[in-house]
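#onboarding

Welcome to the new folks! Below is a worked example of what a typical request in this channel looks like: someone posts a single protein sequence, and someone else replies with the predicted structure as tokens. Don't worry about understanding the tokens yet, we'll cover that in week two.

Example request:
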Amino acid sequence: MADFLITVTGRAAHAGIEPERGANAALAAAQLLIVCQQMNGRWGDVTVDVGMIRAGSRINIVCPEAELHVEVRSSTGSGIQRARQVFEAAAAHLTVPGTTATVRETESCPAMEDTPAARAVFAHAREAGAELGLDLGAAATGGVGDANTIAGAGVPTLDGLGPVGGSDHSPQEWLDVTTVPSRVALLAALITALGSATTADPDTRSTQIRVI
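Example response:
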């Protein structure tokens, strides 16, 4: 995940007396908004969301400044860079005369990439789950959490072992509390299995594994 701030600068003018002297930053920002939204679907692993827009100060002034707050999510670091390149190219070629734009990355979190080492941890989880009567599957989502930071450091990481739930970040968000005991048992079994596997193989004793 990476957050970007795109700042558009125009030129203020009285909207009634001499609007032709102004350069509308809001209009340029609206065009950039379309560019951002059209990036969705361009690459299978990249999503772009303009979550906040700010522009202008009074309705009788040609808008002199606007901001787009954009979030990009990707399953790879290269996807974030591709999105950034599109932002910068669009900002350098605004079609509203008298306006300019800058692009700044304000926050980022490394991608939790799918790796053979992570797949090996998942195989242990499936085996432990099967012994408990749980049929586990793997899924990729656009979520971001502490697991990303750990995975970004090169440590094999498995995320999403908590209780069953859904509708995240909405008024309908829910949690099935009856799944808590089985998930705690799964976590304990997985820790035991990973510990046993590491002890049995001298080459993996120094390997760090994180289960989130």
